[in-house]
Amino acid sequence: MSKNDLYMSQIVREFYTFEDELWYRLEDGTTEKLIESSTHVINDMIERIESFYPKAYSALCKEYDRCKANLRLYRFKIVQRFCKCNFGNIDNIADVDPSGRFNLESVPCPLRGECRYEGVICRPEFDSRLTNGELRVLKLWYDGYTCEEIAEKLYLSYHTVCNHIRRAMSRLGLHDKAEFFRYAQQHKIFEP
Question: Which region holds residue 143: left if phi is over 0, alpha if psi is between -120 and 50, else beta?
Fold first, then answer.
């Protein structure tokens, strides 16, 4: 079984830096150094970064634009930088949870407070890709309102409220309200 076949059957759970190189650990505990030919890992990470951290993705694309002619190197550098800035150490909290969401870490950086990419690439802003209507409904649901109360409060039908919740949960890969609560808190969706 090749490394790419192994990755296809498992999910990366942890990224870490060792001697200035980026490594990853799979579900079964297998560890590998991230290299340009780690295409399945890189493609998966690129998709997640682009989908949920579009500002970070845009900044990374600009940062490595000079090597774009070598697409494999370009994509590798984007993933490597994102991971080094957000997943520095091995710990007991998976960097990529079973649903594929990131648990970002505060990584020690000598440029903290000076880096032009702080809050963009490192500790990036999460973009849930939820519509404004979904966010209004989810905020009330998060605050403890029932679907009937939300419908009354927002002058929507009960079915519209349920559809907003169902579509948002599906888009986020969530299955129940408890999972949504953890997700909203982790990504600070409703914090100013």
Answer: alpha
pLDDT at 3: 52
Considering the entire predicted model, what is its pTM? 0.70
Closest among 59, 138, 61, 47 to 100, alpha carbons compared: 47
Residue with tokens 């930088």: 81
Would you report the helix, strand and coil content of the chain in percent, each value rounded to 5? 50, 10, 40
* Each residue's pLDDT tens digit, 107-135: 888 787 888 898 899 989 877 678 888 88
| Local structure of 44: helix, strand or coil | helix
Q: How confident is the model at residue 169 (pLDDT cuts 50, 70, 90)?
A: confident
- List of long-range contacts for 183-189, beta carbons under 8 Å, 24+ apart: 183/101, 184/138, 184/142, 186/101, 186/103, 187/126, 187/128, 188/126, 189/126, 189/128, 189/130, 189/135, 189/138
Per DSSP, the three-state class of 112 is coil
The span from the first CA to the last CA of the chain, in angstroms, equals 48
What's the sign of the alpha-carbon dihedral 100, 103, 108, 111?
positive
What CA–CA distance (Å, rounded) separates 148 from 47? 36
Residue 7 has pLDDT above 60, yes or no: no
